[in-house]
């Protein structure tokens, strides 16, 4: 069953609206232009839109999920988190549903003054539910164009695949499929290939051939690593997958040589502090290594990962940099600027301004 949101977080950030976002006084960086580089589209669907889709597609959501929307979920581990996401998947059934989700997520991001975002999408998950490529990308791009016109927000796609498909042949099939559709989407807003799913038992090295193919075709590489697995996972993502940014990567902090390497080669970590605490990577914000990584010269961006699931917004994450992680204003400004500096096509924001 869902339990109340972590009390410390709730207290420090004030009351939340039904959508899980904070509605109260403006905080120092709430209206600053910002970029969001690590957000999964399916973990970011505004709750009201999920409920609308559940009704439209006749999906009975269990009581604990509905309670989670109201009070916030509290996850004990990655497995429970994955289970909740699986329960929500049937809410999305058609390419038109994707258009609605993209547009409404764009509206929410723009409300937080996000000007550029790379949204992570898992095409194999869509295909498995009969939402076929390229129809899926076409409707997403229809919304992407409307988001640009209506909200002045530039969206790009990171297509990822799940590394934890147990059957080896099936895993290879989906890696092939995902790489092909990502390459096919190169001229339609897809900027990178990503790798998601459980890190344990699925090290980056296993996926080198697909990332090599994607990079040769012109895609960037931004795998998840160093979240539930240690620094070896980040080393593997860099050496075997040519990672240009690391999704999470926070456990790099356990290896001083890796910290020095990330700083020297300017390889950014797309960090999501609330996600790390919700999924038990760190016990509390005070234990989070982001300030230490930043001070060591590692480029860091701050992001929301699965904001609906964690009852957080990007603006909450940025406010937390000072209130929970103790960074000063200059450091927060620098981290916000990194989002534009390291967004693969963030220069499009300047071009459209
Ligand atoms: Zn993620």
Structure, described:
By secondary structure, the protein is α/β, with parallel strands linked by helices. The protein contains 17 helices and nine strands. The strands form two sheets. Strands 1-2-3-4-5 form a five-stranded parallel beta sheet. It has a four-stranded parallel beta sheet with strand order 6-7-8-9. Helix 5 runs parallel beside helix 7 (135-151) and helix 8 (168-184) packs parallel to helix 9 (208-217). The longest helix is centred in the N-terminal third of the chain and has 17 residues, at 95-111. It is globular. Bound molecules: zinc ion.
- DSSP strand count: 9
Q: Enumerate how many helices there are, as a single number.
A: 17
The side-by-side strand order for the widest beta sheet comes to: 1-2-3-4-5
Low-confidence stretches: 1-23
Which small-molecule species are bound to the chains here? zinc ion
Largest sheet: 5 strands, parallel
The appropriate CATH architecture is Alpha-Beta Barrel
End-to-end separation: 46 Å
The top level CATH class name: Alpha Beta
Shape category? globular
> What is the CATH topology classification name?
TIM Barrel
Series of H and E elements:
HEHHHHEHHEHEHEEHEHEHHEHHHH
- The residue fraction in helices comes out at 40-55%
State the fourth-level CATH superfamily: Metal-dependent hydrolases
Structural class: alpha/beta
Taking all residues together, what is the mean pLDDT? 91
**The number of domains:** 1
Residue fraction in strands? 5-15%
Radius of gyration: 19 Å
């Amino acid at each position: 069953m869902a339990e109340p949101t972590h009390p410390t977080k709730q207290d420090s950030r004030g009351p939340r609206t039904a959508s899980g976002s904070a509605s109260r006084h403006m905080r120092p960086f709430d209206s600053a232009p910002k970029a969001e580089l690590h957000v999964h589209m399916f973990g970011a669907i505004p709750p009201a839109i999920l409920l609308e889709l559940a009704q439209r597609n006749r999906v009975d959501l269990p009581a604990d999920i509905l309670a989670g929307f109201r009070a916030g979920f509290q996850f004990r581990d990655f497995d429970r988190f994955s289970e909740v996401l699986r329960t929500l998947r049937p809410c999305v059934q058609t390419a038109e549903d994707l258009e609605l989700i993209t547009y409404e997520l764009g509206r929410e991001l723009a409300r937080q003054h996000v000007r550029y975002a790379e949204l992570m999408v898992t095409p194999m998950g869509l295909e498995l539910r009969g939402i076929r490529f390229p129809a899926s990308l076409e409707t997403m791009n229809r919304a992407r164009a409307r988001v640009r016109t209506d909200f002045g927000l530039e969206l790009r796609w990171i297509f990822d695949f799940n590394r934890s498909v147990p059957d080896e042949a099936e895993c290879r099939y989906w890696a092939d499929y995902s790489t092909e559709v990502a390459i096919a989407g190169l001229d339609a807003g897809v900027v990178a290939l990503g790798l998601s799913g459980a890190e344990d038992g699925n090290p980056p090295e296993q996926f080198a051939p697909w990332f090599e193919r994607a990079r040769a075709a012109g895609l960037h590489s931004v795998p998840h690593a160093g979240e539930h697995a240690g620094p070896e996972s980040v080393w593997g993502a860099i050496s075997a997958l040519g990672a240009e940014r690391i999704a999470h990567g926070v456990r790099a902090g356990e290896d001083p040589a890796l910290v020095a390497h990330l700083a020297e080669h300017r390889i950014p970590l797309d960090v999501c502090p609330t996600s790390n605490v919700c999924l038990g990577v760190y016990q509390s914000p005070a234990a989070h290594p982001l300030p230490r990584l930043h001070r060591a010269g590692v480029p860091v961006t701050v992001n929301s990962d699965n904001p609906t699931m964690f009852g957080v917004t990007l603006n909450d994450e940025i406010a937390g940099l000072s209130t929970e992680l103790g960074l000063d204003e200059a450091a927060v400004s620098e981290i916000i600027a990194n989002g534009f500096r390291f967004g693969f096509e963030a220069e499009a924001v300047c071009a459209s301004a």
